[in-house]
Amino acid sequence: MMDSSVKIINEWDIVAARQLGRNVAKELGFGTVDQARITTAISELARNIYLYAGQGEIMIEKVESGTKKGMTIISRDEGPGIPDLRKVMEDGFSTSGGLGAGLPGVKRLMDEFSIESTPGKGTFIQSVKWLR
Amino acid sequence: MRKKIYQYVQSHSDEILNEWIELMRTEADERAVQAMSDHMFVKTSAEFVDLVVSNFSETEEAFHERAVDFSEKIVRLGWPLTMMTDGLRVFGQIVENGMQKDGTIDHSSYFEFMGEINNWMFPMYKTITQAYTTSWERTVSLQKIALQELSAPLIPVFDKISVMPLVGTIDTERAKQIMENLLEGVVRHRAEVVLIDITGVPVVDTMVAHHIIQAAEAVRLVGAKCTIVGIRPEIAQTIVNLGINLEDVTTTSTMKKGVEQALAMTSRQIVEVQE
User: Fold this and answer.
1) Does A119 touch chain B (CB under 8 A)?
2) B272: which residues sit within 8 A by CB, 6+ positions away?
3) Chain A CB contacts of B172 below 8 Å
4) Helix axes B107-149, B60-77, angle to 10 degrees
5) A17: Cβ–Cβ under 8 A, 6 or more apart, which residues?
């Protein structure tokens, strides 16, 4: 299985992560709408890392399960973590004065979504988009 | 010893060059070899070897100047830095092998030779890497300025109507500029309607949307109306998926519709003349 990752340290790394995601999505044969969904999801995740954790990593993997093919986006950081997971998954909740649509938005953009976070340790988000 | 190395290098310069090119072709980064034609590769290689040899005869300052010139050139040609550092290493190896073969150095003088060649090579590594990275950094900063210049112009297209085309990624720095240019331009051009065209923005995530909403709100505060034009179908879908509320902002799919709407808002229309 081929996989690759982008370290997120500054704002331009978000663009690099996005570009990588778009290339992989294109390779797998995702249509333009799904490509836009995937790149937007990566953009949200990478920006969260940049804004809240300072640094971290976006990993992109191709996945296969039975006859289904798709791609996994993993976002990992060792930042402050999220104290109340239920709250950040609510629409309109934001600590930064933003729109508060980030994480719930990613969940809607992707097909599968899971999040683990330990305050003081970091956050791990895994999401999958299946090719239809 | 230094003299011996110099003598060897000078009397064997053609051989060294040929061997160097041969070795670099097989060892070097493919990018570097592909980046230029064969003729160019040989020519640039000759220049590089020349530069290294000149380190013996010229003063430090003259060498530094040459290194800077050469570095600028190869940055433009797209040679990676490793091509220069590997190049130096290979050069040292060739000289070492050659001098061993013709008996100029043997076991007893090997340490002296290594010491001398290191003394010769290390400052050169430093100068060359420094020169290369400096010209690289300059290229990057020039591009940054160039990027900023085409960042976010506000163009008056009709009386009371202005357009701001956005192309490329919007980061925090650019978002700030968009806001400033927008507000300043609206006041200066006495615009009543501003069309922000996002056809060329590859990704609209929550941050970009947030900046656009804020910009539209600020435009409203200075007494003008703002319309977002050029929302592509896939962008429309991601905006809906993200759950972004753009209800307070007027939007259209194309610039054409946007202009028509803007003309209607300022009680005008375009008519065909009949003659």
Assistant:
1) no
2) none
3) 11
4) 60
5) A6, A8, A42, A43, A46, A58, A60
d(CA A102, nearest CA chain B) in Å: 6
What does the alpha-carbon distance between residue B235 and residue B205 come to, in Å, rounded to a whole number?
9
Residue to test with chain B: of A20, A43, A48, most B Cβ within 10 A: A43
**Min Cα separation A1/chain B (Å):** 25
Nearest to B64 by CA among B133, B13, B130: B130
> Residue range A82-90: average pLDDT?
84
Candidates B193, B233, B195, B188; CA nearest to B212 is: B195
Task: Select from B207, B233, B241 the Cβ nearest to the Cβ of A37.
Answer: B241
The predicted model gives B127-146 an average pLDDT of 85
Distances (CA, A) of B194 to A77, B151, B231, B244, B252: 40, 17, 15, 21, 13
- Show the domains of chain B with their CATH numbers: 2-148 (1.10.490.10), 155-265 (3.30.750.24)
Rg (C-alpha) for chain A, rounded Å, is 14
Question: B167-185 pLDDT, tens per residue?
Answer: 888 888 888 889 999 999 9
Distance between CA B117 and CA B202 in Å, rounded?
A: 53
Q: In whole angstroms, what is the distance from residue B196 CA to residue A110 CA?
A: 29
Strands (E), B106-245: 155-158, 161-167, 193-200, 225-229
Q: Would you call A72 an interface residue with chain B, using a CB distance cutoff of 8 Å?
A: no
Determine the Cα–Cα distance for residues B4 and B120; give it in Å rounded to an integer.
Answer: 13
Best residue in B141, B199, B205, B237 for a mutation probing chain A (most A CBs within 10 Å): B205
B203 close to A43: Cβ distance less than 8 angstroms: yes
pTM over 0.90: no
ipTM: 0.82
List domains and CATH numbers for chain A: 3-130 (3.30.565.10)
